[in-house]
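Render this sequence as a predicted structure.
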Amino acid sequence: MCWRYLVDMSWFRRWKEYVGFDSWDIPCGGDPRYFPGPIDNSGLFRDPETQTLKDNLVEHEDYVVVPAEAWDKLVSWYGCVAGQQPIERKVVERDVVMKHSKVEVYPLELKLCKSSDPDTVISCRFSIADTVGGSYRIE
């Protein structure tokens, strides 16, 4: 299973400025004026409390996707805003023949309850790649 992480584009731009990512010939990397601070994905959330993503986010405009190794390094160097969970997403194979993979930014979210207890509702997320046998066991 392959995982990727979403990073708010505004934070990522500040980080790129700080390290001189797009300016290899301009010595501005490491300038404390551009220090990005902890990773802050709050701009991606519709509801900061539940950390539910806004609808219709666009890659490279609202967020970037980074591999787990890059995420781990960024977190070890800069940390994350207190209370924010990483936005971890599964990479799913969309076309078996062409071997086309895609990061599943919006997994299917279902609200479930037992018929014997309709007032107790739980929310579960499922990937398009999940199988019934591999899905969560709900008791």
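Summary. The mean pLDDT is 82. The helical segments are 9-19, 68-78.
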